[in-house]
Amino acid sequence: MKLLAILLIFVPAAIVAEYMHANPVLIFGLAALGIVPLSGYLGKATEEISTHTGPTLGGLMNATLGNLAELIIAVLALRAGLVDLVKASITGSILGNLLLVLGAAQLAGGLKHKVQRFSVALAGLSMSLLVVAVVGLVIPAVFLATHTDPSHILTRKVSVGVAALLIVGYALSLVYSMGTHRSVFGESAEVAREEHASDHAPWSIGKSIAVLLGSAAFVGWLSEILVGSTEAAIKGIGLSEVFVGIIIVPIIGNAAEHSSAVLMAMRNRMDLAVSIAIGSSVQVALLIAPVLVFVGLALGQPMDMAFNIFEVAAVTLAVGVATSVVRDAESHWLEGAFLLLVYGMLGVAFFFF
């Protein structure tokens, strides 16, 4: 938390740079750095609130607010008409969590602990949800590729139907993990709460809500600045919109969450590390992306879920590799290194895409 507090200096710096009409690249960089600690405080406040609400409601809050910063950035980018950037950020978030975050966690944890084990039930549920996520991404892309739909009208209708069903699937997974089969997943969550309580004195509910609302407000402000400078910054940096969306934006929105997964792995809490990495990917694919489809309709910026073939192939490969890693409910540093190598390969390809 001390590092997050230090990084908060970038919040006023970004606001000042925006009002002084500084170089767009500088504004983009400062806003991105400012969002990192704010997203960390969002997650921290949500975690603190969950200690006051009980395991079921707390788990639901963590699940629904886990990607709030990323959602805010995406909604504002969508409102600005940057549909391709938003779609790329969805792909990038899934890839980043499955390969970069999980890989870094397994590498860091594996270097400290020879073999790490996590819940078999968690591994099984994770694989099932990832497969459903891939199906949801593939169907609109295949539909567009195999039908004559130059205006994308039919593809958007298909996307709306698929999006609604993905949200239903996400809700069912919550009912399963937090309701009907809570006892299967409850042990690691209870240990995590006990560990959290022993780390420091818990925040009051008032402080937690105040930090949550304040962080969300400033994330919205800095996201507006970030989005406003994105197009000019992209031209100034010389990177493609796809690369910025797939690599840079997801790292900005999830940096604090990424570090949490690595720290949990180093503490030999691999259940939590896997939950953070894979759970965030599942949430993006089954909840965030479908929600953005409906938000786009409401804002008059319709967005379909027909990702380009390379993006679909990249997500499919990432899910395949991640599934092979978690299926035995064990991990070591070599598996983490391989996940990072795959992420690097895809990053190189998207750089020139």
What does this structure look like?
This protein has a two-stranded antiparallel ribbon with strand order 1-2. The chain has 14 helices and two strands. 84% of the residues lie in helices and 1% in strands. Helix 5 (68-79) runs antiparallel to helix 6 (83-112), helix 6 packs parallel to helix 11 and helix 8 runs antiparallel to helix 12. The protein has one domain (2-351). The chain has helices spanning 2-7, 10-19, 24-53, 55-65, 68-79, 83-112, 120-146, 153-180, 182-199, 205-237, 241-266, 270-299, 309-326, 333-351, and strands at residues 116-117, 330-331. It is an all-alpha fold.
Outline the secondary-structure elements:
Layout: H1 2-7, H2 10-19, H3 24-53, H4 55-65, H5 68-79, H6 83-112, E1 116-117, H7 120-146, H8 153-180, H9 182-199, H10 205-237, H11 241-266, H12 270-299, H13 309-326, E2 330-331, H14 333-351
Antiparallel strand pairs: 1-2
Please give a quick description of this structure.
By secondary structure, the protein is an all-alpha fold.
Main sheet: strands, sense, barrel? 2 strands, antiparallel
Form type: globular
Calculate Rg over CA atoms.
20 Å
* Side-by-side strand order of the widest sheet: 1-2
**Helical stretch tally:** 14
Descriptive labels:
single chain; about 350 residues; mainly alpha; two-stranded antiparallel ribbon; 14 helices; 2 strands; globular
